Amino acid sequence: MDWTLALAAFVLGLVLGYVIHTLIVRDDTGKDQQKRAEQAVLELSQYKQSVTDLHQEQGRELAALAAQLEKVNRQWHEASDFLQIQESDLPRPPASLPDDETGKA
């Protein structure tokens, strides 16, 4: 009867060892998953910050570009007003040209 108790204790030890081992492995897996989740959250927040910084930088660059385009547009209009020929400044052609000046023989 001693060997049956020893065998039962051995089997019970195996079962308890398996159960405890499974619980420990699950706990380590849970901790590992939690670390990976925290790492993913950290990477996501860093990505969001980099996207925000990029949008702010692009906004500043677009504002500078708009200011430069406004300056070019203003200069363009000033130059066109300056260079515009007034109708009163145009030379008037003579009423009739003689035949020898028109190139007809």
Shape: rod-shaped
Number of beta strands = 0
Structural class, from secondary structure content? mainly alpha
Quote the beta fraction. Answer: under 5%
Largest sheet: none
In whole angstroms, how far apart are the ends? 148 Å
Q: Helix content range of the residues, please?
A: over 70%
Q: What would the average pLDDT be, to the nearest integer? A: 84
Topology:
Elements: H1 2-83, H2 99-102
Overview of this protein structure:
- The protein is mainly alpha-helical.
- It is 82% helix and 0% strand.
- It has helices spanning 2-83, 99-102.
Short structural summary:
The chain has helices spanning 2-83, 99-102. With 105 residues, the chain is mainly α.
State the main characteristics:
mainly alpha; 105 residues; single chain
